[in-house]
Amino acid sequence: MDCDASAIEGPSVEGPGGDAGASARREYERRRGAREQRIREEHPKLGGLILALSDDP
């Protein structure tokens, strides 16, 4: 008895027109940029140092 290989493999995990996790990556980048901007505005002279020494939340 022969089987159709596409029936065994199942559906593709990629959505239409994009990579899996792309929206999560964009949201991460958006939040990271907002955090960096907020810290630099609140601490104009030490903002870069604070960002360099701290880990992302």
Give an overview of the whole structure:
It is built from 3 helices and no strands. The chain has about 55 residues and is an all-alpha fold. The protein has a domain at about 20-55. Helix 2 (about 20-40) packs across helix 3 (about 45-55). The longest helix is centred in the middle third of the chain and has 21 residues, at about 20-40.
Low-pLDDT windows of residues: none
Average pLDDT metric: 84
Q: Tell me the number of strands.
A: 0
How many H/I helices? 3
Order of helices and strands: HHH
Class computed from helices, strands and strand pairing: mainly alpha
Strand content: under 5%
Largest sheet: none
Percentage of residues in helical conformation? 55-70%
The N- to C-terminal Cα distance equals 55 Å
Shape: rod-shaped
Summarize the structure.
This protein is mostly helical. It has a domain of 37 residues. It is 58% helix and 0% strand.
Topology:
Blueprint: H1 5-9, H2 22-42, H3 47-53
Notable features of this structure?
57 residues
